[in-house]
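User: My instructor asked us to take a sequence, write out its structure as tokens, and then describe one feature of it. I'm not sure where to start. Here is the sequence I was given:
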Amino acid sequence: YIIMCDVIEHVRDTTNILKTLGKKLKVSGLFLLSVPNVAHNIVLMQILKNEFNYQDVGMMDNTHIRWFTSDSFKKKIDETGLKLVKHDWTYMTPEYENISHNSYDEFSLFEKEVLLKHCNCHFFQNIFHLSKDVNSIEASLNNIDAYWFDKIKIIHPNNTEQNIDVFDKNVLANIKFIAPEQDVNYSLVINPTMRMRGFKNISITAIDVDNNEVNITFTVENAICIDETYYSFANSVILVNVDGGYSDINISFEYIDVTDDLLKSLLQRVQ
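Assistant: Let's start with the prediction itself. The structure tokens for your sequence are:
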């Protein structure tokens, strides 16, 4: 393997670097590159506000001297003689970047629709698997399906946080009870990463002092509810109110993707 993680955007002669390293690659090997995606919404949101603010790290790193979309980098690969084996991505929503104009709340409904409907909006990095000859690759890769990736933040009553990374559409989160003798409030913050997010089949149970499972009531904020499915542009919050006397709380739900037709319908509802 030759691995080049977030390097190529820092060099001037991109084609020559790729050609030079490609000569070192075995016929059965793989050349793996990650490249920031300039078509990510964190960039487009800056431009919509007539800004292009650099920062010390992240997508707008002030040492970036080259910018690529997935298609423009594929054209660069064609110039090197290397073959594209696979194109993959990593996902991240704009609010994770510590930069101005990183929230969809700052934009009109029309702007939100434009931002959220283009297919590369939350592809933070493009990942390219290259080879000399796609028919003679002996190396194997285990692909992680990051399509359902989210970061779930559980806020405890004493303001401590518990973060859970999610790699599947079926989610189960466990909360260890802090003060079982008191009535407490928990909040589960869900950060959608792939366009708009929908989630359904929410179930919240707790184990009481007699080791019995009981259902817990909850409310959902920052979401549109249609047919018992909740939809959110940004952070959704599930508020859980718990009486004293429990040990563990289990929260489960299922993610669903939002199609273009459903997105259009939801936008009409909020208008």
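For the description part of your assignment, you could build on this observation: The two ends are 51 Å apart (CA to CA). Try explaining in your own words what that tells you about the chain.
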